[in-house]
Design a protein that fits this description.
By secondary structure, the protein is of the alpha/beta class. It has 11 helices and 19 strands. Helix content is 29%, strand content 27%. The structure holds pyridoxal-5'-phosphate. Pfam families: Orn_Arg_deC_N.
C-alpha cells in the first residue's frame, strides 16, 4: 500500500494551523484503505473470502469503507456484534473469541450471525441450552488449538502451545459426541487462528497446508459433513522494516495451487484479517514540544503518547515515523543526532521510538507515525492522566471529516 505522505503533510499542517496548542491527531486515509482492501481481496483465489476482524479498528468511517469490499465482519464480543448489526443489519457476521457470555450468545441468536466459532465444550453446552426448547438451529465452527510442525513462532502465538484459545484436539471426540446429541447445533467446519504477526508468506502457506490436511483427516475419520475452513487472520505488518512486508501476491499464488487439489474443492476458505487490512491507512501525528538532553541522551517530548498510541509499547518496537517541518518553535533544533520520542505520560514506558537517528528535529515539528491504523487508539489506556483524546481526522479525497474528541 502506498503512503500518501504529501496529502498527510498538507492535512497535518492544516490541523496544526487551526490549533494554538501543540497538536496530536490520528489521520486516516480512506481512499487508500479502499484501494488496499480491494487489491487484497481481488488477489485471493476462489473459493476464498476475506472477513474483517473488527477488533483491529472499529471506527465508523473505517467500517463503512470496508463494508461491501469484504465478505463480512468477524466480531469477538457482544459490543462488536451490536455495533455491526446496528450499522449493517444484513451483512454476514462471524462471532468468535474466547469467554462468550450466555447473554452474548443469546444476542447472537437474536440478531442473527452466520456462524459462531465455538471455543470449548462449555460454550457448546451453553449454546445448546439457549437453543432449547424448540427447533432453532445455529451453524458453528469449532475453533481448534492445533500443534503442527509448521507453526512458526511469532510474538503473538495463540495456538500449538497451552493457551486459553480453541479446543484441544484431544477433546474433539467429546465435542463431536455432544453435537450428535444436539442436532440444533450444526457443525459446518473448523476454525483456526494460531498466530498473529506472520510476515513470511511461504511459512503461512506451509501452515495452511497443515490445516487443510488436518481438517480432511478429521472429516474422513469422523465422517463429517462439513464445508468450511476458517484460517483466521494473523497476517503481520513489518513495523521494524516497513519496506519488507508480507508478500500477499506470492501467498495468493501459492494458495491457489494448494486449493487446486480436488479434495479441497468442497471447502469455502475464510480469512478474518484485522491488522493487515487497516494498519496501513492510519497515521498518528505528534507535535514536538520540547527537546532535552538527559544523562547524555536526547529526548523529543511530544504532544500525546502511548495513551493514544500503545502499538509500539505493546509490540516492543521503535515505530517508524516521518518528520514534517512544523510551525517553528523557539528556535531549538537538533541536527544529525539520536533521539528518543516520548509522550506526555509520567512513566518511562511512554516511549514510541528509542534513540533513532534524525537528520533534523525542531520544536514545533510534527512526527507522523505510519502503520497506525490497527490495534492503536483502541488498545491504548486512553484515560491514564486524563489528557484529552487526539483529533480523529478522516481524509476522504476532497471530503474531510473532523471528529474532534477533545
Ligand atoms: C480469533 C481471531 N481472529 C482474527 C484476529 C485478527 O488478527 P489479525 O489482526 O492479526 O489479522 C484475531 C486477533 O487477535 C483473533 O483472535
Amino acid at each position: 500500500m502506498q503512503f500518501r505522505l504529501d496529502t498527510m503533510a498538507r492535512e497535518a499542517a492544516r490541523l496544526q494551523a487551526a490549533s494554538a496548542d501543540p497538536q496530536c491527531a490520528y489521520l486516516y486515509d480512506l481512499p487508500a484503505l479502499r484501494r488496499h482492501v480491494e487489491g487484497v481481496v481481488a488477489q485471493l483465489p476462489e473459493p476464498c473470502e476475506m472477513f474483517y476482524a473488527v477488533k483491529a479498528n472499529a471506527e465508523a468511517p473505517i467500517l463503512d469503507a470496508l463494508e461491501g469490499r469484504v465478505a463480512g465482519f468477524e466480531v469477538a464480543s457482544g459490543g462488536e456484534l451490536a455495533l455491526i448489526r446496528e450499522r449493517f443489519p444484513e451483512v454476514p457476521v462471524l462471532f468468535g473469541g474466547p469467554g462468550k457470555l450466555a447473554s452474548e450468545l443469546s444476542l447472537a441468536l437474536e440478531l442473527g450471525v452466520e456462524l459462531i466459532h465455538v471455543e470449548s465444550l462449555t460454550e457448546l453446552e451453553r449454546l445448546a441450552r439457549l437453543l432449547e426448547p424448540g427447533d432453532r438451529r445455529q451453524d458453528i465452527l469449532l475453533r481448534m488449538n492445533l500443534a503442527t510442525d509448521n507453526l512458526p513462532s511469532t510474538t503473538l502465538t495463540m495456538g500449538g502451545v497451552p493457551t486459553p484459545f480453541g479446543i484441544d484436539p484431544d477433546d474433539l471426540e467429546t465435542c463431536l459426541a455432544f453435537l450428535e446429541r444436539h442436532p440444533g447445533i450444526v457443525l459446518r467446519g473448523f476454525h483456526f487462528h494460531l498466530i498473529s504477526h506472520q510476515l513470511d508468506a511461504e511459512a503461512q502457506l506451509r501452515l495452511l497446508g497443515d490445516l487443510f490436511r488436518q481438517v480432511e483427516h478429521w472429516r474422513e475419520a469422523y465422517r463429517l459433513d462439513i464445508d468450511q475452513i476458517n484460517v483466521g487472520g494473523g497476517i503481520g505488518i513489518n513495523y521494524r522494516e516497513p519496506g519488507r512486508q508480507f508478500d500477499w501476491q506470492e501467498f495468493c499464488g501459492g494458495l491457489a495451487r494448494q486449493l487446486a487439489e480436488p479434495r479441497l474443492r468442497r471447502y469455502r476458505i475464510r480469512f478474518e484479517c484485522g491488522r493487515y487490512l487497516t494498519a496501513p491507512c492510519g497515521y498518528y501525528l505528534m507535535e514536538v514540544m520540547d527537546l532535552k538532553r538527559n544523562h547524555g541522551q536526547w529526548f523529543a517530548v511530544c504532544r500525546g503518547g502511548t495513551h493514544h498510541f500503545r502499538t509500539p509499547a505493546a509490540q516492543g518496537h521503535d515505530h517508524p515515523f516521518v518528520r514534517l517541518p512544523g510551525r517553528g518553535g523557539d528556535g531549538k533544533a537538533l541536527a544529525r543526532t539520536r533521539v528518543s520520542v516520548v509522550g506526555q505520560l509520567c512513566t518511562p514506558k511512554d516511549v514510541l521510538a528509542r534513540q533513532v537517528e534524525v537528520e533534523r528535529l525542531a520544536i514545533g515539528d510534527m512526527l507522523l507515525f505510519t502503520l497506525a491504523g490497527a490495534y492503536a487508539w483502541n488498545i491504548s489506556h486512553q484515560h491514564f492522566l486524563r489528557h484529552p483524546a487526539p483529533i480523529m481526522h478522516f481524509i476522504d479525497d476532497d471530503r474531510v471529516d473532523d471528529e474532534e474528541n477533545a
